[in-house]
Write a structure and sequence with these properties.
By secondary structure, this protein is mainly α. The longest helix has 19 residues, at about 25-40. The protein is built from four helices and no strands.
Length: about 55
């Protein structure tokens, strides 16, 4: 799963794709990441975290 993080070509492709995201959309994504991180910090825990995005 994390092998792509070490792959220079995959990182280059990801950076190119990020440049194409409009600033407003990128801000929304960043807010979602911050919110998820905050939930983890306050103790949502792995059990509930595993269900995020699932009915």
């Amino acid at each position: 799963m994390f092998d792509a993080m070490m792959d220079v070509e995959m990182m280059r492709i990801a950076q190119e794709q990020l440049k194409r995201i409009p600033p407003q959309e990128l801000a929304k994504i960043q807010q979602q990441v911050i919110l998820m991180h905050t939930h983890v910090e306050i103790g949502v825990g792995g059990e509930q975290l595993g269900r995020l995005g699932r009915p």
